[in-house]
Amino acid sequence: MNNLNIGDTIVVDETRTGNRQLESTFTSSWKPLMEDNSNEWTVLESEQGDLAKITNRFTTRATRMNGYSYTTGYEFRCIRRSPNSYFLGRKIYSS
């Protein structure tokens, strides 16, 4: 393994892998759920545990998902309702 020095450049493919996995999950799991609930918030994931960490992770994911071109027409957010944190999404229909 090569040692890296300050100022060296490196190619990291992990981001693209994560993005592809999110896109796959969006297309196969979340999108069909939101299609059936036009303009209504749909629970896409729910988790219990350390609510601060879970809420932070879901909020970060929502921010990322709101910026991807393949999610145009959809909106994502996180809410916290003890004892759970929820990752939500909805399809936006313009009037």
C-alpha geometry: extended
> Are there runs of 5+ residues with pLDDT below 50, and where?
none
Number of helices: 2
Using only C-alpha atoms, the radius of gyration works out to: 17 Å
- Fraction in helix: 40-55%
Distance between the termini: 57 Å
Largest sheet: 3 strands, antiparallel
The ordered string of helix (H) and strand (E) elements is HEHEE
Give the strand content: 15-25%
Strand neighbour order, sheet with most strands: 1-3-2
> What is the total tally of β strands?
3
Rounded mean pLDDT is: 85
> Based on helices, strands and strand pairing, what is the structural class?
alpha+beta
Attribute tags:
95 residues; alpha+beta; 2 helices; 24% strand
SSE inventory with pairings:
Elements: H1 14-35, E1 42-48, H2 51-67, E2 74-81, E3 84-91
Antiparallel strand pairs: 1-3, 2-3
Task: Describe this protein's structure.
This protein is an alpha+beta fold and 95 residues long. Helix content is 41%, strand content 24%. The chain has 2 helices and 3 strands. It has helices at 14-35, 51-67; strands at 42-48, 74-81, 84-91. Strands 1-3-2 form a 3-stranded antiparallel beta sheet. A hairpin with a 2-residue loop joins strand 2 (74-81) and strand 3 (84-91). It is extended. The N and C termini lie far apart (57 Å). The mean pLDDT is 85.
